[in-house]
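Standup notes, protein team

Yesterday: finished cleaning the Xanthobacter tagetidis set.
Today: HD domain-containing protein structure.
Blockers: none.

Input for HD domain-containing protein:
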Amino acid sequence: MTEPQASAVDLFPDAPDLARRVAFILEIDKLKQVLRRTLLLDASRVENDAEHSWHMATMALVLHPYAEPGTDLLTVLKMLLVHDIVEIDAGDTYVYDAAASQTQAEREERAAERLFGLLPEPHAHDLREVWRAFERRDTREARFARAIDRLQPLLHSYHTEGRVWRQNAVAAADVRRAMAIIGDSSPRLATLAEDMISDAERRGLLR
């Protein structure tokens, strides 16, 4: 009979701080199981949250020259890497799902308390505040991170011929409303977004 797998606490009984950090690392592996609506560019399947977070972090590295002057890239990367961890408990909320969006903040706040609370203090508080700053969008870094968060699925929807838009009866006006926050951080990226939306509308990919 196979023995039960030891927990992080069992493995590090004399190092509770390390045990909690390892427990958090193991818990966030579940992000790989949270599926989004966004299709991969080959349209073979939808992406998961871990893939989404990696892709956005890489986008931030590449697109950082288009952020507001003085935007700290390391802070942006922290936001992009941790901002979807709450979806382990709260699930992914599709930006065009008005009903689910009404309960999103409450669900995600509860999730943040539990998930970041797995870490020892002050690290738990620090990462929770990184997540909250992303949600508030009141700094240059948060505005850029949120812009990237909106731009990434737009790129995928546009380059997969609007398949997810059509499946969910998304209108061009809905996409423009969702993408408006990109302009708060980067006029150039906002223009890129509008060019894609306008072309998709012209080609009938958006109603």
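Follow-up from PR in the comments: The chain has one domain: 12-202.
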